[in-house]
Structures are given as C-alpha cells and as structure tokens.
UniProtKB/TrEMBL annotation, chains A, B:
It comes from the Bacteria. GO terms for cellular component: cytosol. This is Lrp/AsnC family transcriptional regulator. Residues 6-67 form the HTH asnC-type domain. The lineage of its organism: Bacteria, Pseudomonadati, Pseudomonadota, Gammaproteobacteria, Oceanospirillales. The keyword Metal-binding does not apply.
Length: 157, 157
DNA sequence: CCAAATAGCGCACAGCTTGTGCGCAACTGG
DNA sequence: CCAGTTGCGCACAAGCTGTGCGCTATTTGG
C-alpha cells in the first residue's frame, strides 16, 4: 500500500482534481500540459491504484442548517478491547459525530462533532456521551470561526 | 445565507453527490427517481445557490506518504486583531496545517496537522509554532487510528 | 370559485466529453 | 545494437450534458 510511484504529471493531476474534480479532461490537460486522452488514462490508473479514493461534492454546512461545530476530547475508564468497541459503536451510530480518532496524548479520543445549534450539541454531550459507562471525562472546544479548511492533502516533495 | 428551501429531491441529490460526485445524471436520476435533465437543472441550481461549493477528488494519504496526523491545540498571549492576523498568516503558509479553527474553550485555536512522520511534525511544532512570539502553549494529540471519517455532512430531517 | 400565471416535469436533440485503438517515438535491458 | 516496453497524441465511436419545448399540477388573484 506504499510502493506506488507517482511522477510529476500524476502529482499535478492529483493536485488539480483535489481542488476541482468537475473539470473535463481537456481543461485538466491544459493545466497539466497533457492531452485529454492521457489525462483520462492516468485518472483511470490512479483510481485503480487507490490513490484516488473517490469523488465528492462539497456541501455548505449553513445551507443545511448546521450552525455549530466542535472539537471534543473524550477520556475512557478502561482500555480493554471490548470496552472500546462499545464506545466506538456509540460514535458510529450518531451522525453528529463526523470524525472520530483514537489518539495518543492527554485524551483517548478526539471527535469532530456537528450540530444544528448549541442545544442539540449539549443534548448529545449530556444525554449520550457522558452517560456512557466507560466515559470519564468530556472536554469540548466550540468552533467560532474556520481560518483554514483544506479539503484533502498537500502535494509531497 | 440561510433562506434556501430544499425539497426531498434536493436532499436526495446532495446526499448521493456527497458520496459520489462522478455519477452521470442518468445514474443520479435512477437513484433519486428523477429524469437526467432535471438532475442537471437541480445540480446547476444547487451550485448557483452555493449549497454545493465544489467537487473534489478524495486522495489516499498513505499513497502520498503522509503517515502522521495530529490534533494540536494552541494558546496565544494576546488577542488583538493584528496579533491574531500574524498567527493566522503562519497557519496559512504551512501546507501541513490542513484545518485551523478559532475556538471557544480551553484553547484559542485547534489545528488538524498532517505530516510525513513524527520528525517532520516535531520540526513544525518546535521550529515554527512554538517560536512564534504570540504562542504561549501548544498541546497535541497524535492520531493513532481513525474510527470514523465521514466526508461531508449528514442530511437534515 | 375559476381563470391566469407559475413552477416543475420529461422528451428530444445538438454539441461536447470520454475512453479506446492505433501508430509513433523514446527509453530499457540483454 | 536491437527487441521489448512504456508513454504519448490523434482520431473516432459511444455516451453524456444541458437547453428548448410542450405538458401538467399547483399557486395566485380577482
């Protein structure tokens, strides 16, 4: 899962498609100095290799009525295999939890939570997260403003 | 920026496109029970309204050689308008900083940082973040495992 | 309560895009 | 030095996109 070699054309294509995947192969070709047909072939290859995992529409959170986002750190009581599984199930079940990471540091898990408003967020914390038998501590930072939000990855080298 | 009314077809289209924006209007139409032409029109409208902000390729971090991700909390000394600006410039300049949020809570900013490895990450923290005159404290949680990583948003109602 | 206006639909079609076959040129290894 | 391989652009068939059109259902206004 690591032995794929990407030349400068591949990196250029990935960089452009990451910002805008709705471009035609002609437009893409112009930007990376390659013919449309070759763009098509390289795109197909990058998809097959798994470098491109898929294509998504980026949606506007406010238009959909989500006004609140937060970074929530969670500490657990025990760290047995099955203990965590039960907690992970909780995370998976709730659509409000957009990202959940097992981390090394002060906390055990870090979540990125999205909600309609503070009430909905508070409900989630107090009625679902804190009552869980394995949760010992929950600390949240409410997002006030997004300074930077790059979708995707930087280009290496 | 909030008065847009979306019917069930719009929500269905958004939900599908968020998962896979490479579908043709025919395929999209099948899934949401609408003709291709109508899908095309609604898509165009949702783009114009700003509900769809754009289209992106999802890339594989490992293929590009990024093995380390972290959530980093930063505290600043002063909170003047211009003080923050200078710090924000630092964040914008570094491609390693993928997301940066101004937050309310224990910290002032929360960052989502991506790096090749621990060395590169440590370099960033010690040679760029901590030396900044306005930074007073930096605390990081290294991501061990991603339990959930929804790209995009849940569908309301 | 009914008529006019509006909004939203599918169909048809012109123009454009996609992806493959092909021939060519540039490297690669024996 | 030469056969094999790789990667390129061109050309073209198949398929997709987006707009004009006519139709129907819903809304508006008198």
């Amino acid at each position: 899962m690591h032995g794929i070699s990407l030349d400068r054309y591949d990196l250029a294509i990935l960089s452009v498609l990451q910002k805008n995947s709705a471009l035609t192969n002609s437009e893409l070709g112009e930007r990376v100095s390659l013919s449309p047909s070759q763009c098509s072939r390289r795109k197909a290859r990058l998809e097959a290799e798994g470098v491109i995992k898929g294509y998504s529409a980026r949606l506007d959170a406010n238009s959909l009525g989500f006004g609140l986002r937060a970074i929530t750190r969670v500490n657990l009581k025990a760290h047995g295999e099955s203990m965590d599984d039960d907690f992970v199930t909780l995370l998976t079940k709730h659509a409000m939890v957009r990202e959940a990471y097992s981390v090394s540091g002060d906390a055990d898990y870090v979540l990125h939570v999205i909600a309609k408003d503070l009430t909905e967020f508070s409900d989630f914390i107090h009625h679902h997260l804190l009552p869980h038998p394995n949760v010992t501590q929950v600390r949240s930072e409410i997002i006030l403003r997004s300074m930077k939000e790059e979708q995707g990855l930087p280009m290496p080298k």
